[in-house]
Amino acid sequence: MMNIFSLIQGTPSTQNWVDFFEGDRVIGLAVNIQNAMHPKNSQRVDAITGGKYKEILIREDADCYLSEILRVNLQNLLMSVESEVANQF
């Protein structure tokens, strides 16, 4: 996105996305995943008002967010497998 803004302004981009997050790729990853999960502004507004959209400013925020996403998805996967196994009997 920063490259696009640079092109619009007619100036060369000297930053990459990692620099935007002060060199912390984990923060960048967490922010990008969260934005991908709420791609439309209206979805982000709903997530914010519902308390599901997290402000990720520091590494600890990113770690907590990514851990929670992983936990929820693994739990859902395991519950799905458990249901499949239970349906076999």
Brief summary:
The chain is an all-alpha fold and 89 residues long.
Question: Could you characterize what this model shows?
Answer:
The protein has 89 residues and is mainly alpha-helical. The chain has one domain. Helix 3 crosses helix 5. The termini are far apart.
What structural class is derived from the secondary structure elements? Answer: mainly alpha
Helical amount: over 70%
| Number of helices, where a helix is a run of at least 4 consecutive DSSP H or I residues | 5
Q: What is the approximate shape?
A: elongated
Total beta strand runs: 0
Strand residue percentage: under 5%
Rg over C-alpha atoms, rounded to the nearest angstrom: 18 Å
User: H/E element string?
Assistant: HHHHH
Number of domains: 1
Q: Residue ranges: pLDDT <50 for 5 or more in a row?
A: none
Quaternary structure annotation? single chain
- Overall residue-averaged pLDDT value: 86
- Largest β sheet strand count, sense and barrel closure: none
Gap from first CA to last CA:
52 Å
Provide key terms for this protein.
elongated; 0% strand; 89 residues
Summarize the topology:
Layout: H1 2-9, H2 17-20, H3 25-37, H4 41-49, H5 59-87
Helix pairs in contact: 3-5
